[in-house]
Amino acid sequence: MTQQTSLPFGRTDITVEELEQLVDTEEAATQAEKGGVNDAKNQIEDFITYIPNLLNWLEEHGRSYSWRETNDPWKVYLAEILLQRTQGDAVEKIYSDVVQRFPDPKALNQASEEEIREAVHSLGFVNHRQRTLEEVGRIFIQEFDGEIPDFIEDLKKPWRVGDYSARATQLFARGKPMSLVDSNFARVIGRVLGYEMPQQPHKSDDVYALLDALTPTDPDVARSFNLAILDLGALVCTPNSPDCESCPISATCQYYQSTKSEGQ
Ligand code: SF4
Q: CATH assignment of 72-173, given 3.40.640.10, 3.40.50.2020, 1.10.340.30, 3.40.50.300?
């Protein structure tokens, strides 16, 4: 198993030459073409040259959350379940309490329905979350002897735990380089590359193939790359009013270039 050496933003001081060794440019270009990216190879190569800018931006502006300070698979997995359809700031308010109440799958499995509901009630979607957490405790105890499974398909066994949560656990806790696909991620990459995102990018094998090829193979850089895109999507490249003028990758962004030329 590959282990990370640093937290929380991974490795942000990387050169373009190093990145070129860590990113599968050919595969990324092949996959980008499938999404209608023009001149895909050049676009991907150009994007790679701006990744150091993106990682510098992360170092300065990235969000600090408690679950980014740990590589304990249980704590990361629990955070990802709490983060489903929920803002990080809301989760941060209750996260340490939830971790204290349920320090492992056994504690969760022994908790009553009421205790679970009380722990997460401030986040909303209480029925949904209670059922998911109840299944996490039961399944991890019954099928994995109280351990946190190390395969994506096993991490997805509890009700409504999907690829994002499972992959985030493997990436952030276990240092396995892989991409995350959520709406922020899809929006940023779609805009930057001019990639035509499908309606449900998190269910598209093509989108995963593209983003896995773009994700650097070094665990620390994979961590920083994913965190940078997630935070850029949350803070700068927002759905309705992206702040392109302060974006660290605007010079390689197809969306920005096209809106600029429209305004000329
Ligand atoms: S330049 Fe604008 S559209 Fe492009 S990634 Fe940055 S914020 Fe998003």
A: 1.10.340.30
